[in-house]
């Protein structure tokens, strides 16, 4: 293959060392012939052989080196795809274009999600690639907008409706004929007059010809496009060949070239039945996308902005970050923001799926499109336009729908060979019927003796049964039936239809999956690892205890503290005064930290009226505590190890430390100027749903593990409250070491889901098979997490697991029936036991049934385990 050259814009390079790192990382890839990077211009050039290395691999190498290459992602609506083979053709055409990093094409949603290098390929060239594959990209000024797909689907629905109605009128004259045939097959005298039941052959020819020129034209053109562009065969090929065979044979009989019956009525019913199926399929696709569209429609159209004391009604697009919005009871909150004044309950059911309103007050975050229930709120807008949570959710769902589960690879592989195999099978059996009709008729008749419904069409060929039909005619019937009964649509729709509904369902319940592949991975998880603070607990620490230790703890009498060289001396007596002094020193030291424990100490001192002094030097010791120079002296507060490393004996504090830790509190010794002075304790309340969640996961057979930076005693006390086995508690774990513990579990054969806050836990989230960021609120774009939970409730982990299991079960259910349908009916048609018209009806019904089955899944409630009616037959898919 010809060498390609990629021109990249690379962000993050600050020196020649950076550019060298990029060059080395890319040049190390097999197939890269030249790599250069210039940090001064933030540009890079790569010459590579696309047969050996992909552009996606180059981008991954740059990312692994710690830098980022510019890329854009577009969602393009594609019309004309009729099966999985079509979506594969579109994907291949896009990925063959220089500059395209990856392309995911979803047949169920009629969309292609393309990530590309804007320096090497344009949107117009992407459209040209799709057109080159024989399909129609929707090109409008609103490219990428959800309304684009909606208009395209409505356009296709109108077109299919016109074909359906027009074709139905042309097929109507054949209905009495079909009923007459059914009466004859049943051995009952037909009440339909002969002239109506058997119209003139020329009339049948005229009607069938018009149908072939209208409805049939759709399939013939689709088959021609597939074959002429990349020598592929698709569903259109099966319909085109099957109907053409019946039509041409009937024309030959009508013209006296051959002797036999006419099959114009079968051609008519086949084309109309399949057109009916296409219309129902497009209608189902539109319904599948409704939930996402309705989510966007929940946004407010206008906002009340308060500017210079005046209230103004402005369009939502005119709201800017920093604007103060007034939201009255019953109104939608226009955009994401922070409450500045007021108190109210907000209905966030559209975001989380929970019907109970959430109380909001000053300082609380609110999300656009949620509904203010009962109070007036003044909200400062923080995110607008595409940055709002609802827009990010929609984008996340689109991304999820474009990434299919691993099981889809099996389906794609089968689909690639399915249509050619069906054509070969049909030709083979038609030929065998021509050469050995007596033998096959014997087999067909034997089947009919066991299953009376399965009788050879027309009584069998004349060479095998008196009163049958000519052998050539029978062979044509077998050819048409064997082609038309096969349904690649059902196979192609099985996975994307279910994942499309599942990802939308999860989004409306506050659970965002990065892709269908993540849905599949969650289903196989057997170990769930929870971070403690902010996940199993509220993460809102409260100062509970201040205890004195050391020589001054038992002293009495003395004076207030006085300045001495700028440093306050501790009081020589008075337990309350000494406690205030120690707490004030600790609060002063912690005032420079944003850690939840630090905030609890500072707020606790403020609530007790303790003065918080200044800090001249501050050092945060990760995972240990803080060291700070304050106006009360040099303060050390944190773990025992922090003090012991500084030569301070923590033995005198061991008693209160142990007692407080057994109570489930986080206890920390405090030293001032090298002397142990006291112990402070903070407590974090366990979430109400944590125990129920852990119990439910354990009941499902999952292992539940807790990681925390707290000491062993505190960790075990919290684990006991939650119901986690003490042996599954990992305490005193530094943030950077959490990933190591996850790796250790995975090395032992566990499939791990890590649940954390998405910030300190990022390495562990990335290391685990599935990373879950909990309580993300308006910040839904967390790159390190595979699953994002909009609420800070661990119960939503159960939702994620249940939705995953339900979606993949629905995928397997769809695939099971699609495979059963094809493997059962293709042999029946091949043995001449199925009328071509009924084969066309069965083909249309199978794809519609897959979409209907998937749409029924939208009613699933993830608060309960999913009950799948058919489970045992699906076990072979799990291999």
From TrEMBL:
Keywords: ATP-binding, Cell membrane, Copper, Copper transport, Hydrolase, Ion transport, Magnesium, Membrane, Metal-binding, Nucleotide-binding, Repeat, Translocase, Transmembrane, Transmembrane helix, Transport. Residues 554-574 are annotated as: Disordered. One of its GO terms (molecular function) is ATP binding. Residues 4-70, 72-138 form the HMA domain. The keyword ATP-binding applies. Belongs to the cation transport ATPase (P-type) (TC 3.A.3) family. Type IB subfamily. This is Lead, cadmium, zinc and mercury transporting ATPase / Copper-translocating P-type ATPase. The lineage of its organism: Archaea, Methanobacteriati, Methanobacteriota, Stenosarchaea group, Halobacteria.
